[in-house]
Amino acid sequence: MNRAGVLRSRLTLARAEMFTRERGRWRARAGLGAVVLAVAISALLTYSLTRLFAAFAADGVTALEAARVLAAVFATTALGTLLFDLHATMATLLLAPDLELLRRAPLPARTVLALKLLDALPLSSTMILALAIPTTIAFALAYPGALHVGLAPFVLAALWAIPLGLGVAAAAALVRIAPAALVRETIGLLTTLALTLTWLTNTFLLPRLLSEGRMLDGTLRSLLAQIPAPLAASPATWAVDALLAPWPHALVALGLLGVGAALSLTLAAMIGARALQRGSEVIHATPAGRRASRVAFTVSRASAFLQRDLALYLRDWTVMSDIVVAALLWTLLPLAFLPVLPMPPVVLAHTMLVALTVGLGHEVASRALPFERDAIQWLRIAPIRPARWVALRVPGVLVIALPLFLLGWVAVAVTLRLGPSEASDVLLQSGAALATSIAIGFWVGAAFGDPAWRHPRAMLKGTGRLVAVLLLVGQAAMWLALRPMLAGWPGFPATLAALVVAAGVILASLSGTTRVLSRAPGQRDRTAARSNR
Amino acid sequence: MNHPLILEGITRRFGAFTAVDGVSLEVRAGEIVGFLGANGAGKTTTLRCACGLLTPDAGRVTISGHDLGSDPLEARRAMGFVPDRPFLYERLTSRECLAFVAALYTVPPAQAEARVETLSARLQLGDALDQPIESHSLGTRQKVALIAALVHAPALLMLDEPLGGLDPASARALRDVLREHADAGGGVLVSTHLLDVAERTCDRVVMLQRGRVIAAGTLAELRGNRGDATLEQVFLELTRLPENPA
Mind telling me how many Å the CA of A433 is from chain B's nearest CA? Predict the structure, then answer.
C-alpha cells in the first residue's frame, strides 16, 4: 500500500473541509467555522472553569475536594464521547460516501478502519477537546502542583479510547434494528443537545454559582459535596486517581486505564473491521416491515400537501423532537437573564413568548423546504406556481408550530398569573411575531436550504445559518423594542402596530421566497449538469 | 401541428462552457425517440431544459403546442419526466408519494388510483407500493418515478436513463409501457446508453455530441449506405469512438 499517498489524500480531504480554491483564491468553508467555534468554546470554558476552581481554592476547598468536579467532568466526557463515537461510527464507518471505494481498494479491513477512525477523529474527540482538556488545564492552573501533569496526556488519550470500542459495538448493533441513516440522525441530534447543554451550563450556571456571595456562606462547598462520585471501577475514577492519587496508586489507576483502552481498541478493531467486511448489504438495509395505512387519493392539493407534511414530520421523529426541544429551550432562554434583568410578569411573559415564537417560526419554517430534499423539484415540473407551493406549505407548518405556541402561551400565562387582557395582548403580539418568523423562515429555507442535509439541526448551509442567527436576533430585538417604544405613544395600540409590522414583513418574505423558488436552479444543479451533461 | 415536443435551437451555457449548443428536435405523436450520446454529450442538460428544470439561454421549448417559457403550467401539464435520480419523498410509501403527485396534477382520485394500480401491476411493483420509499432499491424507485410521470396521462413522456437499475423483466415491462403510450398517441423521448435497447424500442434516434445534434432519423435513414450496420456501429462511426476489438 502506498501509505504516503493514502495519507496525502486524506490530508487533502481534511483540508477541503476547511478551505476551497476558486479561481486561484483560497476561501474558507464551513469546516473552518466549526474548528474556530470549537476553539472559542474551549477557550471560554477554560476561562470559566479556571475562575470556578480559583474560587474553590480561595474558599479553602482542597484539591481532593475539588476533584469531585474533575471526576464529574471525566464521567460526562466518557459518556459524551460514547455518544459522539456512535455518531462518528455511523457517519464515517458505516455511511461515508467513500466507504465503497475504500472497501473495493486492495486494503486490509483494519487499514480501512484506521483510515476511517482518522476521519472520525474530529467528531470522536469533541468532548475531550471541548470539555476534558479545558477542565484539566483549569484545575492545574488553580491547584498548581496537585496534578501529575505528565500523565495527563495518557489519561486523556485513554478517556478517548475507552468509549471507542463500546461506541463501535453499539453502532454495529443498532444498524441491525433501525435504518442506519435514522440512527445517525438521532445520535447527531443527541450530540448537538449534549453540546448545547454544555454551552448553557457554561454560560448561565457557572456565573450564577460564582455570584450572589455563595462562596462566602459555604453554599459552594455544600454544592460540591452534593456532586455524586462516579463508580469506583470506572474510567472517570481511574482518570482522577491517575492524576491526583499518590504515586503507586496513580500508576495502578493509569494501568487500569491502559488495559481498558487496549481492550476497547481491540474490540473496536474487531467489530469495525467485521462491519466493513459485511459491507453495504447490512448497513444500507432498511426494515421493510413498516406499512403505512392506505392513503386516500384526493384531488385537493391543500389536503395532499397537509397529508404529506404530517407524514413526513411524524415519521422523522428526529426533526420533530429537535423542534420540540428547541421550542422549550427558546422559551426558557429569557429566564436566564432574570437575575441581571428583573422584569415584571407581563414583560417577562412577552419576552418569553417572543423568544419562543421567533425561534419556533424559524425552526419549523426554515426546514419546510429543505425537508423536501430533491423532491422539491416537483414544483418545477408539475403545473403549479411557486407561490402556490409556498402557500400550500403554510398549513403543514402551522399544524406543527401552533400547538407548541399555544402550549407555551398557556404555560407562561398560567405560571406568571397574567390577567385576561394581558394574556390576550401578549397572545396577539407574539402571534404576530410567530407569523413573521414563519415567513422569514420560509425565505431562509428557500435561499439557503441544503437538500442533501444529514443532520436534523443542519438543514441550512453555513452562510444560511449565519444569516438565520442575525435574522433571529434582529427579529427578537425588534419585537422586544417595539413594546416599550409604543408604550410611550398613548392612544396608539401596540398590538395594532405589531400586526401592521408583521403584515409588511410577511409579504416581503413570502414574495422573496417565491422569487427564490422561481429562479433558475442554483450552483448545485449547474455542477451536476456540468459533470453529467 | 401540435407535436408533443418541439425543441428549437436550445442552448445552455454554464459560465464560458456551452453544454448544449443549438439543439433542435421534435417528438411526434405516436413515436418513441431515442436520445443518444456519449457521457457528457449534453443529453441530461437538454432534457432538463425541455422539462423546465433548467432555463435555456436561447431557444424555445414547445410541449403539445404550449410554450414552456410563456405558458409553463399548461406545458407542464402535458408532460411527464423521469429524471436519472428520481425525485421521491423517502419517508413516504410509494402509494402516498404517487397520491401526492396525482394531486399536484389534479387528477381525479378514482382515475389516479386506478392508474397507479394498473401501472404498478404492469411494472411488478408488488408490495413495494405500500412500503416506504427509503426501503426501495434503485430499480423500484425508478418504477415509482415512471408511474409518477404517467399518473396524469401526459401527451409527452421524457425519461433520462430509465433502464439503469431495472432487471430484465422490468426493463421489458418498461419498454412495453412506453410502446403502449406511443401507440395511444403520446410521444416519448428517452435518453439511454443502451444502444441495443434503443434499436429495439425507438422509432427514431437523435444523436448528440458535444452539445450538438450530429444525426437524427430512423435506423434505416441513419444506416444510409452502410448496409446492415447495427445502431451501435452507426453510433460509433458517427461519434468517431474507437471500436472495441472484442
Answer: 31
Residues of A in contact with B77 (CB under 8 A): 383
Whether B154 and A382 have beta carbons less than 8 Å apart is answered as no
Nearest residue in chain B measured CA to CA from A289 = B131
A299/B132 touch (CB, cutoff 8 Å), yes or no? no
Whether A140 and A67 have beta carbons less than 8 Å apart is answered as no
Query: What distance in Å separates the CA atoms of residue B157 and residue B51, rounded to the nearest whole number?
Result: 10
Domain assignments of chain B as residue spans, ordered by start: 1-78+155-246, 86-153
Tell me whether residues B134 and A295 touch, CB distance under 8 A.
Answer: no
Nearest to A299 among B54, B96, B103 (CB): B103
Q: Which residues contact A437 (CB under 8 A, 6 or more apart)?
A: A357, A358, A359, A360, A361, A362, A365, A475
Q: How far is A483 from chain B (nearest CA, A)?
A: 43
Chain B positions in Cβ-Cβ contact with residue A378 (cut-off 8 Å)? 87, 101, 104
DSSP letter for each residue of B94-161: HHHHHHHHHHHTT--HHHHHHHHHHHHHHTT-GGGGGSBGGG--HHHHHHHHHHHHHTT--SEEEEES
C-alpha cell at B112: 389516479
Residue A21 grid cell: 480554491
CB atoms near residue A384 (< 10 Å): 21
Interface test with A, best of B12, B61, B100 (most A CBs within 10 A): B100
Q: B69: exposed, middle or buried (C-beta count within 10 Å: 0-12, 13-18, 19+)? A: middle
All 3 cell numbers of residue B20? 448544449
- Select from B44, B74, B90 the Cβ nearest to the Cβ of A529: B44
Copy the grid coordinates of residue A153: 496526556
Rounded to a whole number of angstroms, the distance from the CA of B129 to the nearest CA of chain A is 10
Phi, psi angles (nearest 5°) of residue A455: -120, 130
b/e for B150-188, b at 16 or more Cβ within 10 A? bbbbbbbbbbbbbbebbeeebbebbbebbeebbeeebbb
With CA atoms as reference, report the closest residue to B104 among A372, A451, A442, A385.
Answer: A385
- Distance (Å) from the alpha carbon of B79 to chain A's nearest alpha carbon: 8
pLDDT tens-digit profile, chain A (533 residues): 667 777 787 778 777 777 777 666 777 776 677 778 778 878 888 888 888 888 888 878 888 888 888 888 888 888 888 877 776 666 666 666 666 677 677 777 777 777 777 777 777 787 888 889 999 999 999 898 888 888 999 999 998 888 887 777 777 777 666 666 666 666 666 666 666 666 566 555 555 555 555 544 555 666 666 666 667 778 888 999 999 888 888 899 999 999 999 998 888 788 777 766 665 444 444 444 455 556 778 889 999 999 999 988 888 777 787 787 777 777 777 776 665 667 788 888 888 889 889 989 998 999 999 999 899 999 999 999 999 999 999 999 999 999 989 988 988 888 888 889 888 888 988 999 999 999 999 999 999 998 888 777 778 887 888 899 899 989 999 888 887 777 667 666 777 777 888 899 999 999 999 999 988 564 444 444 444 44
- ipTM of the complex in this document: 0.92
pTM: 0.74
Instruction: Determine the 3-state secondary structure of A521 from DSSP.
Output: coil
Looking at the domain covering B1-78+155-246, what would its CATH class be? Answer: alpha beta
Residues of chain A in contact with residue B43, where contact means CB-CB under 8 angstroms, are 533
Q: What is the DSSP letter of A94?
A: I
